[in-house]
Amino acid sequence: MSVEPAIPSPVPSDFIRDIIAADVATNRYAKIVTRFPPEPNGYLHIGHAKSICLNFGIARENHGQCNLRFDDTNPAKEEIAYVDSITTDVQWLISGWADHCLGYKPKGASPALQTIDGKPDYFIAPVGLSTLNSQLSASPSEPFSASSYFDQLYEYALILIKKGKAYVCDLSPEDTDSYRGSPDKPGKDSPFRTRSVEENLDLFTRMKAGEFPNGTRSLRAKIDMAAPNIWLRDPLLYRIRHTAHHHTGDKWCLYPLYDYAHCLSDYLEGITHSICTLEFVDHRPLYDWILANLDLPRALPHQYEFAKLNLGYTIVSKRKLLQLVNEKLVTGWDDPRMPTLSGLRRRGIPASAIRQFVTSVGVTKFDSLTEVAVFENAVRTELNGLAQRRLAVLKPIKLVLTNIPAGEIIECTATNNPQEENPTTRPIALTREVFIESDDFAEVPPPKYFRLKPGGEVRLKYACIIKLDEIVKDATGAVTELRCTADLTTRAGGINVEKKVKGTIHWVSATHCIDAEVRLYDRLFNVAEPAAELDFLRVVNPKSLEVITAKLEASLASATPADRFQFERLGYFALDKDSPLLPSASQLSALSSQFPGKLIFNRTISLKDTWAK
Questions:
Q1: Which end of the chain offers a freer environment for a tag, N or C, measured as fewer CB atoms within 10 Å?
Q2: Angle at 259 between CA 255 and CA 260, to 5 degrees
């Protein structure tokens, strides 16, 4: 059983939390219950993270509950693979932070019939507040889903028909849109609006039975075709779709629309605060109308809206992200360049960094563009405290320390993470041959160049000062080797350890290193607002990925996907899921570069913002 963590003080403050604080102060609800209701038609992205953290954060701060519920009412676009990916992403993002607030339901459960004040009612109770431990429970659990309520939603529709609040319409989808009118022009009544209750009940029952083809009939709410709010002009509640559902199979050919299913799903689960993004402001009157016209006995949920996250250099449209996948501009939904939570996780971005970022952005009622540099700085700040330091050379050039005998190993001590309160260290091997970064050498250096140059001195970090004596070239004139002298008296504990030089560079031993594939990821788009482009594919950054073979210190051979590293002077990196199985203990002890398959590391982010002007 997980232990509920303490809530830090102060908690975030915004207009939605102010509303909830007032409700808590007046004991309006026995418990605060929110929900996160994604449609399983794509992967979650950074924009969803704001909603997840808001809904789960509110539950966490008020000792409440947040249900993960799938809005799975459109079988034509939904897949079980998306259900699985969304479940994994949500659990990852809230793990160790708000997983004790995650509400699931008993596996296979649907709302149970009960009587309240003499009225029939339905309610589905959660399994409990600790759902990540459901595997340990005798009763397995699963996320909530609108499809679990199809029977109850159908019963509610029958009630609306009997009350004269809904009717079966035979207009085609095109005519339905045409009759609705425009924001500045009233709509006109459907010729089927005056059907009797008996005829509507008969037709709706036959629709459920599969008697009619797709698009021939729909169920509409009877509200007002002249309403200023176009969403109240007799909106669709049900449509016919002879399509199998990933959850309910072939049981249904009649599926509810989102606006109908959403508010009733909230009610069935006992949601108190239904928090949506701003595009649902105009839908709220319909949300309230459906609930109010069913004479429901329990307290009704209320909808509140906030501004979604718009991030610079990023696209979060599922349709456009799917286009990137289908046109193979990325390797998949979890490509580390994608703004999906799967892609960000694979890139090595910690969940804590995402939570910190979306919390810092705040919750408002006004749409705005957040600079991607704000997100990147949040990632750097988080990784600076988490990441273990390691030595790696991305573009190596060999350097020979001529005064160190072949086969000799000089042990040096490197710091694992200087940000820790009590930093630990590890041994690294200085040998006759090492690799340094090719960018750290210049045969003809520019002014104020403090790295390695002919006759110049630099310090090999954690080791000693070296001096460049000779440059070796091949027949084409390309530099193949740098020959240097190591001043071993400048090592830690040496008599000249205090000797100063202006340049310090990183390195790895040529005989105590491993080869690895390193994927250098960058921003996927070249412009701040790619979604505003007529053809967003034209602004894809052709340099968003560079793949190289690098030399890494041997200790990285035992890296795991959960580890986070700073390759010193280069950036933050994480092991990719495509990496082969880790080497055996005997291979590790041999410190051989001949491991079966190269490890693959992704650059999570550079140490500095290379896009800053």
A1: C
A2: 55
Cα gap 485→468, rounded to integer Å:
7
Distance CA 586, CA 169 (A): 73
pLDDT digits 0-9 by tens, 25-75: 999 999 999 999 999 999 999 999 999 999 999 999 999 999 999 999 999
What lies within 8 Å, CB to CB, of 178 at 6+ separation is none
Over residues 512-553, the pLDDT tens digits come to 999 999 999 999 999 999 999 999 999 999 999 999 999 999
Residue located via tokens 């040529």: 510
Give the integer Cα–Cα distance in Å for 87 and 95.
Answer: 12
Q: CA 542, CA 524: separation in Å to the nearest integer? A: 8
Rounded Cα distance between 253 and 256, Å, is 10
pTM of the predicted structure, to 2 decimals: 0.92
Longest dimension (CA), the chain: 101
Q: Which residues, 6 or more positions from 337, have their beta carbon under 8 angstroms from its beta carbon?
A: 330, 343, 347, 521, 522, 523, 524, 544, 545
Q: What is the DSSP string of 167-236?
A: EEE---HHHHHHHH-BTTB-----TTTT--HHHHHHHHHHHHTT-S-TTS-EEEE-S-TT-SSGGGSS-E
Distances (CA, A) of 401 to 122, 195, 391, 474, 505: 79, 94, 18, 19, 15
Strands (E), 260-313: 273-277, 302-306, 310-311
Contacts (Cβ under 8 Å, ≥6 apart) of 114: 120, 121, 122, 123
Q: What angle (nearest 5°) sits at the alpha carbon of residue 351, between those of residues 54 and 47?
A: 50
Nearest alpha-carbon partner for 53 in 28, 89, 21, 5: 89
Determine the length of the chain. Answer: 613
Asked if 10 contacts 57 with a C-beta cutoff of 8 angstroms, the reply is no
E strands present in 386-487: 388-390, 392-393, 396-401, 410-415, 425-430, 433-437, 457-460, 465-473, 479-487
Q: Of all helices (H) and strands (E), which one includes residue 508?
A: strand 507-509
State the pairing for strand pair 254-256/236-240. Answer: antiparallel
239 DSSP β-pair partners = 218, 255
Measured distance CA(238)–CA(153) in Å, rounded:
10
